[in-house]
């Protein structure tokens, strides 16, 4: 006797099983040769876990820079920094892996594009004070972290991230904060409305 319900259950069970197998296969064992497909540019388009790891490391490292900026009251926070670093890592990783002959052009394009993005962070107030310059420079540095992670230099990317956060926090350290050039200006100079630039 034919039972359509049992056929549907078997069909759904088969779909779930195939879905689980596909997820496990993608997560634990793809090789470049097994997943390679010919692309339009004559190269190969690959689902490569190494690239995903590099991009993930770039996002995690940029989070710390973005958190510091958000903590200090900047308009650009951790999501902005993570997205910039992720984009830089993705463009760089794909360029280095799939187009090694022209990878330097891709890297130069990323640096230029992020420069325009950072330019949008710089604001000039009515009193002539410029705000956002430090955050724009931090966005540019976060893209450099993303590029380093994208080419596979994960240790250097981590060290550069620590250096960026240290530089951003220098003025808030007690000993070094006293040496700040803004605080040692001549007495006849007008103090700015905002002592710390974000």
From TrEMBL:
Superkingdom of the source species: Bacteria
Keywords: Cell inner membrane, Cell membrane, Membrane, Transmembrane, Transmembrane helix
One Pfam family per UniProt: MgtC
Coiled-coil segments: none
Membrane topology qualifier: Multi-pass membrane protein
Domain MgtC/SapB/SrpB/YhiD N-terminal, first and last residues per copy: 56-170
Transmembrane segments: 49-67, 79-99, 105-123, 130-149, 155-177
Cited InterPro entries: MgtC/SapB/SrpB/YhiD_fam, MgtC_SapB_SrpB_YhiD_N
Localisation per UniProt entry: Cell inner membrane; Cell membrane
Similarity section: Belongs to the MgtC/SapB family.
The protein's name in its UniProt record: Protein MgtC
């Amino acid at each position: 006797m034919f039972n359509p319900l049992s056929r549907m259950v078997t069909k759904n069970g088969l779909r779930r099983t195939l879905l689980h197998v596909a997820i496990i296969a993608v997560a634990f064992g793809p090789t470049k040769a097994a997943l390679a497909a010919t692309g339009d540019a004559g190269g190969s388009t690959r689902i490569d876990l190494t690239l995903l790891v590099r991009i993930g490391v770039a996002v995690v490292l940029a989070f710390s820079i973005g958190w510091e900026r958000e903590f200090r009251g900047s308009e650009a926070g951790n999501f902005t920094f993570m997205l910039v670093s992720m984009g830089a890592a993705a463009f760089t990783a794909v360029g280095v892996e799939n187009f090694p002959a022209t990878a330097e052009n891709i890297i130069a394009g990323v640096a230029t594009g992020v420069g325009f993005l950072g330019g949008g962070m710089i604001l000039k107030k009515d009193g002539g004070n410029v705000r956002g310059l430090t955050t724009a420079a931090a966005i540019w540095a976060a893209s450099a972290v993303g590029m380093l992670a994208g080419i596979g230099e994960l240790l250097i990317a981590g060290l550069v991230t620590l250096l960026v956060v240290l530089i951003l926090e220098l003025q808030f350290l007690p000993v070094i904060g006293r040496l700040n050039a803004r605080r040692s200006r001549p007495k006849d100079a007008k103090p700015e409305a905002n002592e710390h630039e974000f």
